[in-house]
Amino acid sequence: METNNNQLHIFRTNVTGLCPNCALHKALSEYSGIDRWTIDHEDIDCVLRVETEILSADALITLLNHHGFECSELE
Questions:
Q1: CA distance 32 to 44
Q2: What is the DSSP string of 6-75?
Q3: pLDDT digit string (tens) for 39-66?
Q4: Which of 13, 20, 22, 69 has the highest CB neighbour number within 10 Å of its CB?
Q5: Alpha carbon distance 7, 58 (integer Å)
Q6: Are 3 and 63 a contacting pair, CB within 8 Å?
Q7: What are the beta bridge partners of residue 39?
Q8: CA-CA distance, 15 to 60, in Å (whole number)?
Q9: Rounded distance, CA 49 to CA 52, Å?
């Protein structure tokens, strides 16, 4: 039996839109350790959800900040 140790991290961001060729879209899609991600652009907080087994919230915040976006974890 395979176990799933994924954690779901949820963030408030200022990412209002992403195209498939944007640097952040590519980074999230190709970043080792990110299993799945979505951004709800209809939500006022542009909520980013990331499933990962190994990455911390701080690492994900750093990734978004590196690409010029604001990001804070929602409780």
A1: 28
A2: -EEEEEEE------TTSHHHHHHHH-TTEEEEEEETTSTT-EEEEEESS--HHHHHHHHHHTT--EEE--
A3: 999 999 999 999 999 999 999 999 999 9
A4: 13
A5: 13
A6: no
A7: 48
A8: 14
A9: 10
